């Protein structure tokens, strides 16, 4: 009798854990859905409905998906060559979530030409009736500061303003010219 009670208790605990995991996944999916338009969400819903009803109409074949993946890889490669920015890792953690406000902590690392960088910031999203506004807070930029004292001043001012677009534009330009200067000096050595 006691053994069956223990087994039932363990099964209840495992089910509670599974419910907790599924709830977290659901919350993440709900949170991610705010990034998509209503049209994209409706198209996804229709696609899932067809999948669960067993209809095969409208599904893309594996060769189509492979072609799309190759196309996306070419686009990413082009953007990396064009900007010199390559992201090596990204992590996202939801810190706070309410009905109309979400705070996420992001950590991004990568390199631009030969300069490496790491960013940490919080993204505050506030949802009104019509739209979603996002603000970057608590921006922290970590870069090697050895011979880049000019860049370190710029990094400090960028952290105060919280403007990532300016940071990436300036980093791309600076790193490209830094690479040109380095190659020129190597040529004269």
Automatic annotation (TrEMBL):
The organism of origin for this protein: Psophia crepitans (common trumpeter)
Pfam families in alphabetical order: CENP-P (PF13096)
Gene Ontology biological process terms from the UniProt entry: CENP-A containing chromatin assembly
Protein name per UniProt: CENPP protein
Record lineage: Eukaryota, Metazoa, Chordata, Craniata, Vertebrata
PANTHER family: CENTROMERE PROTEIN P
Gene Ontology cellular-component annotations: chromosome, centromeric region; nucleus
Gene: Cenpp
